[in-house]
Fold:
Amino acid sequence: MSEVRKKAEAAKEKAAKYGPDIDLDKYTLEAPEYEEKELSDIDVVDRERLLSAGVDVTGAERSGSFIQVDRSVIHAAPTQEGIEVMATRRALEKYDWLSEYLWSAVPVDTDKYTASAEINFQNGYFVRSLPGAKTVFPVQACLYLKAGDISQNVHNIIIAEEGSELHIITGCATDSPEARGLHIGISEFYVKKNAKITFSMIHNWAENVAVRPRSAIRIEEGGVFINNYICLNPVESLQLYPSAYLVGEGATARFNSILFAQPGSFMDVGSRAVLSAPETRCEMIARALTTGGKIVSRGLLVGEVEGVKAHLECRGMILAGDGEIQAIPELDGKVAGVDMSHEAAVGKIAREEVEYLMARGLSEDEAVATIVRGFLHVDIEGLPAVLKDQIDKAVELSEQSLL
Amino acid sequence: MLEIENLTVSIEGKELLKDISLSIAEGETRMLFGENGSGKTSLIMAIMGLGPYRVESGRILFKGEDITRLPANERASRGIGIMFQRPPTIRGLKVKQMLEIIERDGQDIDELAGSLNFTKFLDRDLNLGFSGGEIKKAELLQLLAQDPDLVLLDEPESGVDLVNIDLIGNAIRSLLQKDIHKERKKAGLIITHSGYILDYVEADRGCVLVNKTIWCTGNPHEILQGIKERGYEGCLTCQK
Structure:
């Protein structure tokens, strides 16, 4: 047994630090297998459900596509020179060196979910931009739950080689809003010298799906990592807390998250950044909106060397009486000369703001919708247009909750 | 255009304005003086239908219609506009988006913004981190887009530097159609402490709010001079 596997076995029962504990035995690893196909021939997924997670099944304006249904990779191919898109298992066979990257950023014994991903490994995606290559369009990756009560365990590795630029849109979805299941997704990102990764993740799960992504990002000198995370649809239980390690001089990380919790949803979402090299920068912006669900919005900035700069902002809006938002920003300055700050605010829509817009002629409903839309609007680089529709839908839903 | 009849307004049971009667004609510009906390802002907020103000008695007529119980947006759509002294920040709502929502007559927003030297703020969140002068400009731009028949201005010159006061003064002149003499329609009610705005906007009359009510009405320059010389206490002893 390998060292990694031994560690995984030892962590099999280890509860996660955050989020409700999930009984993994409730789910099955069994699911029908599907064949790999051309994008245009894919018929086992619901295209509408994919589209609302930002995945375009025509592959138009994409530099490559990856789709995994339950445990089967049904499509994995780049459409641009210098970009690699393949199943993780295949990539591990092709590249001996890749095993060095596996479980290098995320410790395998983090908790029972990382352990499960190792023990029950069911593929995932490998996306890499070769030195100097720049994606013209984003690469899209989709993880899709179809079989009932499935436990999906994927491991993704994303590498932007020196001087390259990679934009990935990951859309996660279920086959129907009634689907039950568990998604465990390990994602390890490596941003090499002067490279850039923009990673937009759109979750379009279902009310009975539990989700436990485990991600970490290693950013080298002059590298940039931008993480956009959007979850506007109901989810039973979601907990994620990606960690960025800014290890090279001048590395930059930016995290934007937009969360909308409807009644019955639980979301515990945060981002963590460890700034351990000179001149590193990090910015985190979170917007949390609830009409009855619970959101825990975390953020942790760790400044380990002099001259680092980081800011964390979390704003929460509770639209209905029984919603709950906890904003937990943390700063950990380990030396003098770090410049780190946070601001957090949780509240309801200010009456003063509604009246201000009413004085300009907007009806009360229009004023509320305008404020909510503004609240959810974060200047996000590289978000697909479908997201605008999603945000509009969230605004509409939140309006209904006020009536 | 605006008729206020025996208006008494309270907030949380506390009387703020008592038995106020005030009439502003079409084309008229009226100054409203009064010391800090005298209720000037409460009066224009009550006219606009804003805030936690409760009309206990009396009524407000606009163009002959009783608007006392109308919500603020209905008053706005009938032609009343207000410049807030301390407007709230609306995060994520760009100045330009706001102007597009407000404007009704197909005005050129870029041109309006250019006239106030405010173009580079069009993509900023409304009022977020704006200085005193920038807030005034943003407010005025919204009013220019809205083009109301009656404008309520709450201390339009406060916090504005000498360079910008010119721009702002002229924008207010244009809001009030000061270049039209015979058939001027637009009316205004302007709160001022310093009276600087009088250098830009010729006011027809002024009035003073003392002891919760309109104490006197007259030539705005004379009233301002009186206040400068004798303070607001002087108003109480002065013949009404």
User: Anything to note?
Assistant: Chain A touches chain B through 23 residues (CB under 8 Å).
